[in-house]
Structures are given as C-alpha cells and as structure tokens.
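Tokens for chain A. Residues wanted.
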C-alpha cells in the first residue's frame, strides 16, 4: 500500500476499535468495511514492464475511453474507476523536462472535456527516441493529485511517479508517428500494457 493511503486506513481503523470497545457493533462494522476498501484502493501491486524497443506503456490502470489523432499528436485517455489501482507510472524511460500543474474544476472524469477543464498535472518525459506527456486529471470524486516526479528527474519505464486519490483519468500524449496498440473499451494495466510503439 502507498504511504498516502495510511491515514485513510488508520483513522477509520481507530474509529472501528473505538466503536467495538463500546459494543456499537453496527458502527464498528461500517468502519471496518471502510478500512478494507481503503487498503484495497491504495494497494501497490508489483508490475513487471515488458522489454522491447520503442514501447510506450500505459500510465495507469483503467479503461481506454478516448483515442485522438490530431495536429498535436496522438492521445490515449484512460479512466480509472474507484476499483482500479490509482498509481501512475512512466510510459517511457527518460528525463522529466517539464512539470505543469493547473488548478481546474472537478467535473466528472468520464467526460472528454475533463482533459481541458479539470484540475490536472502534466509531466513531459524526454526519452532517447521519443517524447511523451502524461497528464493526471482529477475527477468529481478525486480530492488530490499527487506527483512525486519533478523537472530534472530521470524515470525508468514503468516507474511509479504519482497517484490520484479516487476516481480520475490519465492522458498520454505521443507523437503522430506512433502506432496505437489499444482500442476504446480495453482495460489496461499501468507499467505493463503497451499503449503504442514508435514508428
């Protein structure tokens, strides 16, 4: 479990014990259920990234809801439900050349407009042969975007660089010459699923 989830487990855990001490069993049961859900939500499973040249990996777990191809490049957007792992991982190996935080709205993350209007944090990663951007986007339930990476950091492919607390989405923007390997409706795993390959 990631350390950012500890308070979400400890507080209801203490309340569960307090309720049990006074034999308020129904309330203790509710708090115990919250503890289990929070421990599950903030889980940090081991991931092994595939090996190969020119691979661009998913930055998070979730369902592909949008694929764009325009003058700015190609974009794959993945929606994370409350049941998905919410840790973000670097799609490629490279140097973080830019980190931009925008304080926006908290509209539903299922909307494509969330990429333009919601609170978000974008890191640009420059690899040996390709540069990509990974954007963490807060949703209506998301309370905080956490980004551990900063400008100048070197990231390994699949390395954890942040998380979003509760329902949200992550966009990966890539050059126009990449070949997308996923389709809308696919469920992907951060650091494991191949989103695209460079041309």
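Reply:
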């Amino acid at each position: 479990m990631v350390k950012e989830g500890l308070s979400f487990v400890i507080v209801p855990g203490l309340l569960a014990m307090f309720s049990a001490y006074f034999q308020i069993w129904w309330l203790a049961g509710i708090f115990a259920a919250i503890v289990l859900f929070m421990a599950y939500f903030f889980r940090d499973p081991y991931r092994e990234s595939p090996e190969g040249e020119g691979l661009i990996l998913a930055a998070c777990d979730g369902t592909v809801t949008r694929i764009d191809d325009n003058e700015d490049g190609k974009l794959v957007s993945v929606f994370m439900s409350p049941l998905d792992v919410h840790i973000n991982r670097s799609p490629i190996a490279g140097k973080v050349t830019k980190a931009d935080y925008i304080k926006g709205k908290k509209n539903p993350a299922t909307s494509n407009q969330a990429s333009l209007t919601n609170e978000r944090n974008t890191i640009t990663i420059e690899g040996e042969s390709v540069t990509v951007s990974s954007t963490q986007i807060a949703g209506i339930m998301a309370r905080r975007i956490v980004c551990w990476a900063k400008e100048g950091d070197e990231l390994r492919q699949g390395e954890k660089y942040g998380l979003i607390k509760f329902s949200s989405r992550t966009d990966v923007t890539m050059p126009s010459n990449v070949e997308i390997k996923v389709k809308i409706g696919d469920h992907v795993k951060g650091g494991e699923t191949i989103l695209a390959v460079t041309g």
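The chain has two domains: 3-41, 55-197. Residues 55-197 form a domain with the Glucose Permease (Domain IIA) fold (CATH 2.70.70).
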